[in-house]
């Protein structure tokens, strides 16, 4: 009952209506704060919201304070320290700054609350105390001041990106692809993703669609229930989504609800939640909505969510055909052992490597995906297989899957991108295979692909 | 000599039920003895295994965690085939997930097509028992449903409080072993694993004869 009430409140009180424009007052929404960047005054800024702080940055800069209750609630993670009295520990630690320091470091670069052991916390505390004694208290948030050289480099990259996307998509800069593969600068990602996905055009084509009106429409109960359930279990360790029914979860709820109302072909399907989750880490809810919509329509990502999951099986087919060519040993092994891509790769394609992967890896894949389309998905998938080939060849189903399920943890994004782009496949190959799948699919591969 | 000691039995356990009833949490609790904090909806299916000794036999339970949302069922059903036992989970605080037990059981029998439709080992699991505010699905009602559906066994669990989780899986595995008793050929470690995989392949092969159908939901 109480849940229901909460749900109603949730639905009926959308986040404060704002004029839907690109220009946004800073500080109203975290993640869209304007950022002062030195040395680019002379640049013509054609897009008013060019440089924005990703959400994890703005959250990082707020004072984060942990209470002993927080620790208590995570006691399970410290099961080996059953007898430690957290309350005692925190009472002894009177200095607020120190507490902040300790907990701030418990969040990683992308805003995720890291599992750190109790010992680690204590050792960090000691570190901080020592620094203090030595008279050089380090910044509570460890916001490293960039050196002049680093600032310049950052600005150069920013200006390159701004120039490149000024004319996009009318003119595609020859270096766009290779630069996207290196990663879009974090502060510029929100804008770049929006430009690359042609959100503006989509908005022009659907002028009557007003996001802030949509989220006031009452949704269908069953769908709303599903969304509601998933909202509390999307990046629940990220500082933005952590708070139950907090601002982060509310915006996620709004966007997913709007998608389910507008995109009737699919409605809300699980998997969308994690993609929108990543978008929300960079953009406000309205922009996330449009970007997601563009992804579904312009990038035809909806094919992964349609009844019967046609896109997924097509991707599996293409993936296995490419495997046969690029990694014949792995292909044969999978065929012989009866291992199907649906046993491990479903979430790779459906969520664009979001679910289960670290966000620092995911955003890099998004950068390339938005620039060059689905080819990168096959490349990454093949690279993961290639990188693990020595570990799983000769293994049976159990061990084979264990190897692959263990990969997403701690993947180095640079290594992944560098490796992936070296996988030799072409756009034309994918187009041909799509056609082949539709017209006369290879029976042998179909056997492996079919559910 | 060594080899003889390492007799292992491989069992395929499939866990099904509505979205958000706690399938992943239960499995995670069982295989890693911790409550999953960073949980997310399961897309497609996930796999984990656990080695346990039951009645003096080493059993490797291959546990398939399936997606609860309807759209992903067309994928889930491929994991039903060759299952030795099946746990149907519902959320005791969500009555509609209890009402859907029928649908899940029927879908499993239809797509998993086990030989013994009437006696296939199911275990009905009522999860989230920790949320007791008086409005939970009553044990009596659940027992009644189980009785009406071929005398299935019922157990109440809480993945959060770790109540009866181990018990539930042990029961499931025991049931699976019971069923397999006749067919099980005990082989040394490697061999039996190989054997298992061949089995799986045979299942796949069985299906291949069907025309590559255009994918429809379920």
TrEMBL record, chain A:
<dbReference type="Pfam" id="PF00566">
    <property type="entry name" value="RabGAP-TBC"/>
</dbReference>
<dbReference type="InterPro" id="IPR050302">
    <property type="entry name" value="Rab_GAP_TBC_domain"/>
</dbReference>
<dbReference type="InterPro" id="IPR035969">
    <property type="entry name" value="Rab-GAP_TBC_sf"/>
</dbReference>
<protein>
    <recommendedName>
        <fullName>Rab-GAP TBC domain-containing protein</fullName>
    </recommendedName>
</protein>
<dbReference type="GO" id="GO:0031267">
    <property type="term" value="F:small GTPase binding"/>
</dbReference>
<dbReference type="GO" id="GO:0005096">
    <property type="term" value="F:GTPase activator activity"/>
</dbReference>
<feature type="region of interest" description="Disordered">
    <location>
        <begin position="126"/>
        <end position="147"/>
    </location>
</feature>
<dbReference type="InterPro" id="IPR000195">
    <property type="entry name" value="Rab-GAP-TBC_dom"/>
</dbReference>
<feature type="region of interest" description="Disordered">
    <location>
        <begin position="1"/>
        <end position="55"/>
    </location>
</feature>
<feature type="domain" description="Rab-GAP TBC">
    <location>
        <begin position="183"/>
        <end position="373"/>
    </location>
</feature>
From TrEMBL, chain B:
<dbReference type="GO" id="GO:0015031">
    <property type="term" value="P:protein transport"/>
</dbReference>
<keyword id="KW-0342">GTP-binding</keyword>
<protein>
    <recommendedName>
        <fullName>Ras-related protein Rab-7b</fullName>
    </recommendedName>
</protein>
<dbReference type="GO" id="GO:0042147">
    <property type="term" value="P:retrograde transport, endosome to Golgi"/>
</dbReference>
<dbReference type="GO" id="GO:0045335">
    <property type="term" value="C:phagocytic vesicle"/>
</dbReference>
<dbReference type="InterPro" id="IPR027417">
    <property type="entry name" value="P-loop_NTPase"/>
</dbReference>
<dbReference type="GO" id="GO:0005525">
    <property type="term" value="F:GTP binding"/>
</dbReference>
<comment type="similarity">
    <text>Belongs to the small GTPase superfamily. Rab family.</text>
</comment>
<keyword id="KW-0813">Transport</keyword>
<dbReference type="InterPro" id="IPR005225">
    <property type="entry name" value="Small_GTP-bd"/>
</dbReference>
<dbReference type="GO" id="GO:0005770">
    <property type="term" value="C:late endosome"/>
</dbReference>
<dbReference type="InterPro" id="IPR001806">
    <property type="entry name" value="Small_GTPase"/>
</dbReference>
<dbReference type="GO" id="GO:0003924">
    <property type="term" value="F:GTPase activity"/>
</dbReference>
<keyword id="KW-0636">Prenylation</keyword>
<dbReference type="GO" id="GO:0005829">
    <property type="term" value="C:cytosol"/>
</dbReference>
<dbReference type="GO" id="GO:0002682">
    <property type="term" value="P:regulation of immune system process"/>
</dbReference>
<dbReference type="GO" id="GO:0005764">
    <property type="term" value="C:lysosome"/>
</dbReference>
<keyword id="KW-0653">Protein transport</keyword>
<keyword id="KW-0547">Nucleotide-binding</keyword>
<keyword id="KW-0449">Lipoprotein</keyword>
<dbReference type="Pfam" id="PF00071">
    <property type="entry name" value="Ras"/>
</dbReference>
